[in-house]
Task: inverse folding
């Protein structure tokens, strides 16, 4: 099957799946998108080509967008690959492809390096929870150990840095726009200091 044929089949499955998820019959969807039930049936089963002037009202009726109905799927849409920054002792998995509401991004990090000596500041707040191991968090003159199952939230206008304590640690981080820009270097590397 060609790539166009695969996408066509995927769109048909999405239309049928969304209709069924809403508990709608063909008649229900047909009345909402001003097509006949027989036309919708032929579209879902592949016995009729899908025209753009039909697809737009179907998407609207199903509460989705045309883009979402026709977006293709490949491994890059599913598999999250780690980025390693050996120099900073970090491995990062970005769990959000695009920043969410208010520019928020989510990442999982494996931290293997001890806390760096230099403390930094940047606008915003940092938040992380420790999935395994212990993180040493330096906030100004304070040193705080954040252990597995604990979380930390702090103003990043306080001079700060963090690193692994007593062995590698894994954390789940939420970054605002300023935090992501600061922690994820343009080179793709990650900084343990803010």
Result:
């Amino acid at each position: 099957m060609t790539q166009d044929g695969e996408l066509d089949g995927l769109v048909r499955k999405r239309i049928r799946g969304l209709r069924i998820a809403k508990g709608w019959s063909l008649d229900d969807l047909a009345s909402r998108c001003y097509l006949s039930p027989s036309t919708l049936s032929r579209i879902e089963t592949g016995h009729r080509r899908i025209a753009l002037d039909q697809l737009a009202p179907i998407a609207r009726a199903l509460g989705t967008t045309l883009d979402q109905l026709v977006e293709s799927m490949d491994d890059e849409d599913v598999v999250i690959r780690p980025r390693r920054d050996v120099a900073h002792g970090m491995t990062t998995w970005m769990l959000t492809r695009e920043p969410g509401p208010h520019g928020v991004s989510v990442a999982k990090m494996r931290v293997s390096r001890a806390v760096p000596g230099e403390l930094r500041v940047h606008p915003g707040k940092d938040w992380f929870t420790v999935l395994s191991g212990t993180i040493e968090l330096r906030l100004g003159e304070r040193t705080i150990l954040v252990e597995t199952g604990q979380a930390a939230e702090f103003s990043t206008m306080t001079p700060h840095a963090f690193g692994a304590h007593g062995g590698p640690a894994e954390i789940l981080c939420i970054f605002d726009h300023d935090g992501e820009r600061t922690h994820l270097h343009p080179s793709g590397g990650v900084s343990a200091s803010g």
Observations:
- The two ends are 49 Å apart (CA to CA).
- Helices lie at 3-21, 26-33, 37-45, 52-61, 66-70, 75-78, 177-183.
